[in-house]
Amino acid sequence: MLLSELQKKITKILAEGGIETNSLDARIILREIFNFDEKELILNSDLILSESKISKVQKIITRRLNFEPVSKIFGKRDFYNSTFSISDDVLDPRPETEHIVEIANNFILEKGYESFIDLGTGSGCIILSILKENKNLTAVGVDISIDAINIAKKNSKDMKLEKRSSFLVSNWLSSIYRSYDLIISNPPYIPSDEIITLSKTVKNFDPLISLDGGQDGLKCYKEIAQDINRVINKNGRVILEIGYNQAHDVIKIFESKEFNLLKIYNDINGLNRILTFDSKKT
Ligand SMILES: C[S@@+](CC[C@H](N)C(=O)[O-])C[C@H]1O[C@@H](n2cnc3c(N)ncnc32)[C@H](O)[C@@H]1O
What we know:
alpha/beta, 2 domains, 7-stranded mixed beta sheet, 11 helices
C-alpha cells in the first residue's frame, strides 16, 4: 500500500467513526509514524509501506476511534510557539488559551512586570510560553496535582526555562507566601452536572480535576478570589479564562474583592472567554 492510499483510508475510517477532525488527524498520525513534516508527507505520497508500519497505524486508529485525542496518543501538543509534553494527568492545552499568553505579554511590556504566578498550571503551557518570550521574567506555576507538576517541570527542563520557573503543589494560593505583579489562571470551570454532556474526547481523556468547577462552575474563582489580595502587588493585574456564560458572575466575584474589570475578551465565536482585572491596591 502507498502512503497516499493509507492516508485516504485513515481519513475515511475516522470519518465513519464520527471523528470530525478526520483529515487533520490522518495527517498528524502519518507525520508522527514516519517522522515527516507536512511537506515531506506530500513529497512521499508514493512511498510503499511495510506491514509493520501499517500495523502500527492500525493500533493508533483503534485508539482514536475510541475518541482518544491524537495529542494524548502521542504525548505532545503544540501550544503558542512550542511543543509541550502532555499525559493523562494534564488538560490537553486548548488553542483559545493561547490568547492569555498574548494578553500577558502585552501587560508585561506595558507595566514592566517582573513576576507572575500561574494557578492551575497543568502542563505548564501558559507559564512557559510567557517565560519563553520574556527573558527577564520569573514565575511560579501551582497545581494541586503532583503528576501535573511533574509534567510542567519536564516541559520547563526541555525548554531550558528551569532557572526562571518554579513549580509547587498547592491548593491554589495556600502555600504562596510572597506577592506577584500578575496572577493568571485557567481554572476548572465546568459545572459538575455538565461534565457528562462533554464530548468523549474531553470527558474520557482530560482529568476530572482539570474540568470540574463544582456545582455552579464558579467554585475555583471563588476560592482564588478569597485569598488573592494577599499575593498581588500594587498595580497588579489578573487574567482569567472563563466559561462562555460566566463573565457576569466572575466579574461580580472579583469586583467584590477590590478589583476593577479591565476588559472582556471574546473567542473566535464571539463568546466571552477571558477577563482581565486591575487591582485597586496602589
Ligand atoms: C483547566 S486546567 C488548566 C491547565 C493549564 N493551565 C492549561 O491552561 O492548559 C486547570 C488546572 O487546575 C488544577 N487545579 C484544580 N484544582 C486546583 C486547586 N484547588 N489548586 C490548584 N490547582 C488546581 C488542575 O489540576 C488543572 O491542572
